[in-house]
Each structure stands twice: as structure tokens, then as C-alpha cells.
Write a structure and sequence with these properties.
With 315 residues, the protein is an alpha+beta fold. The protein has helices at 3-17, 95-99, 105-117, 194-218, 222-249, 255-277, 282-303, 308-314; strands at residues 21-22, 25-26, 30-32, 34-39, 48-53, 67-68, 84-89, 122-127, 133-135, 140-152, 157-168, 173-176. The strands form four sheets. It has a four-stranded mixed beta sheet with strand order 4-10-11-12, with no helix packed on it. A four-stranded antiparallel beta sheet has the order 6-5-7-8.
């Protein structure tokens, strides 16, 4: 393997090992999934109330705000909290504390802890969790699960998962059928894998557009310029990923500051690459980079359906 082939292989490997999710942030190439659950037959147990709260027995998961579960409610929660479901005799519960001020987190948590310490919470064996993200080209947008109460006594709440509904980005849904061996059918997924989707709709168009821009300025050796555009974009991909993740880790969540930071990082890298790789002067290198990144950023932000996610990831 010659030196140039080794460099290209190393760059491709770097692109593959860039973290898919950084800390609590969803990285480019992924999208969040919504999740909620409901209990379908609460009305059959009028002497009990039901609530979602921290799993005190296992002490697993993170903070969760205790939430009263009413008939028909679909309850969501933070992805890392892994709560469970409890029953409590109505005469032992002050529902006002759980309904008056939803944002009074400390009061609600302290009250649920007191109920647990007094052995008034009747636990279920259900540990709630869900996958919080998927590929950006995946049609799945959300999941709704329904549990049915099989029975409740002073020691245990018996719940069974009755159904799983998958929600898709075309406003359709489907109810998953239970499998004979247990569990439920998987949702339908994208027809093509993410890497091929990105390659077809983002990387190749970016390479071609930037090649045409460079060719319009330099007007010679098109084969060399196409190779240069390809290698340059292999270099700027990891830079775009790292810049995106850095901005998100600073808790900057609005898309436009993130996109601006990514574009500035890529613009600077490509200006240097053109200056030294194609031996152009700084003014010309700067102009080529401005035009190339301006065009691809416009396409990524306004014309590609997935919006700034792909533009910030690739352009």
C-alpha cells in the first residue's frame, strides 16, 4: 500500500469511529425517538392509584419525577431514568402533591420516597426503558406501549405488556404483533443503511459540487481536482463531526450557531487545504472555499429534507 492509499484508508477509518452519540447529545446522522406508555385497564381497579417513580428497590436509573398515571394518559420520561410503575391504595395517597405543580420536582420526589419508606408503594417488576435515537433516515419516529394490570395485592403489582405501536414519519402507525417466543415484532426500518444514504445524498453531491467550484476557478487538470475534492472532503468530515459534538457538549442546542461553527471550521480547513494542496494564493483559496461551502451549506440547509442535521454533518 502506497502512502496516499494509507492516508485515504486512515481517513475512512476515522470517519467510521467518530462517536455516534456524544454524552447526552444526539450526533449528526441520528435523530431522537419519542416514547410513552399507558395502562389500559386502570378503571378496573378503582381502589388503587398508579404512578411512575424511581425504582427504589434496585436503585437503578437516574432521577425521575413521580407522575400520576390516569386512564388514557401516555406517560413519557427521560431516557436514562429507567423508572418503574407502582400501585398505591387511594386512601394512602395525596394526589394533589402529584398534580398541583408538575415542576415542583423536589416535593414530588420526597413525597414518593416517603410513600416507599412507609411501604405504601406496591411495586411492579416492570423496568421502563427505551431506545432514544435511531438513524436519521429511519422512518420510525416514536413508540407507544400499553400495559394491562393482571392483578394487584399488598405485595406486588402484576403488569403485562399488551401492545406496542410504532409511529412513522409519514403519519402512519402499526401495531406490532406478539411473537410466539416472546416479545414483539420489530418496526420497519429504512430501505438502505445510513452509510449508503449519506453517501448517495450527501457525500457524493458535496464532492461533485466542490469539484465543479474548484474547476471553475482553476480550469485545468480536472482529474487531479476531482481527486483533491474527494480527499479534502474525507478530511473535513471528521472536522465537521468533532466541531458539532463540541458545540453540543457546550449545551448549545439551537441549530444556527452550531451550523455556523461547523461551517467556519470546514471553511478554514478547506482554505488551508486549497492553499497548500493546490498551491493557490490565500485570496483565491479563501474565495474558492467561501463559494464552495456557501453553495453546499445552502443545499444542506434549505433543499435537503433532513435540514440542518445533514448540512451540519457533511457540509
Amino acid at each position: 500500500m502506497n502512502r496516499s492509499s494509507g492516508v485515504v484508508a486512515a481517513l475512512l477509518l476515522l470517519m467510521l469511529i467518530i462517536p455516534y452519540v456524544s454524552a447526552d447529545m444526539i450526533s449528526p446522522g441520528a435523530k431522537g425517538l419519542s416514547y410513552c406508555f399507558r395502562i389500559g385497564n386502570i378503571a378496573d381497579y378503582p381502589e388503587y392509584s398508579f404512578l411512575m417513580a424511581f425504582n427504589y428497590a434496585s436503585k437503578s436509573g437516574g432521577y425521575v419525577t413521580p407522575t400520576l398515571i390516569n386512564p388514557g394518559d401516555c406517560i413519557d420520561f427521560y431516557k436514562a431514568s429507567n423508572p418503574t410503575i407502582y400501585a398505591v391504595h387511594k386512601e394512602n395517597l395525596n394526589e394533589t402533591i402529584l398534580t398541583d405543580d408538575f415542576f415542583d420536582y423536589s416535593r414530588r420526589r420526597n413525597y414518593a420516597q416517603q410513600l416507599y419508606n412507609k411501604h405504601m408503594l406496591i411495586p411492579s417488576s416492570v423496568l421502563l426503558s427505551f431506545k432514544s435515537y435511531t438513524d436519521v433516515n429511519d422512518p420510525l419516529d416514536g413508540i407507544e406501549e400499553t400495559f394491562l394490570i393482571q392483578g394487584v395485592d399488598d405485595d406486588a403489582l402484576d403488569l403485562k405488556k399488551e401492545s406496542v405501536i410504532y409511529l412513522y414519519n409519514d403519519d402512519t402507525s402499526e401495531t406490532a404483533l406478539p411473537r410466539p417466543e416472546g416479545g414483539f415484532e420489530e418496526p420497519r426500518h429504512a430501505l438502505i443503511p445510513l452509510w449508503l444514504y449519506v453517501l448517495i445524498f450527501s457525500l457524493i453531491p458535496t464532492i461533485i459540487i466542490e469539484f465543479l467550484v474548484i474547476l471553475a476557478f482553476i480550469r485545468k487538470e480536472p482529474g487531479k481536482l476531482l481527486l483533491f475534492s474527494t480527499v479534502m472532503n474525507m478530511i473535513t468530515w471528521p472536522i465537521a463531526y468533532l466541531t458539532y459534538n463540541f458545540m453540543r457538549n457546550q449545551l448549545i442546542l439551537h441549530p444556527y450557531p452550531i451550523l455556523l461553527a461547523v461551517e467556519m471550521a470546514v471553511f478554514a480547513a478547506e482554505t488551508v487545504a486549497i492553499r497548500f494542496g493546490l498551491k493557490q494564493g490565500w485570496p483565491k483559496s479563501t474565495m474558492i472555499s467561501i463559494v464552495a461551502n456557501g453553495i453546499t451549506a445552502f443545499i444542506g440547509l434549505f433543499l435537503i429534507p433532513t435540514g440542518y442535521v445533514l448540512s451540519s454533518m457533511l457540509f
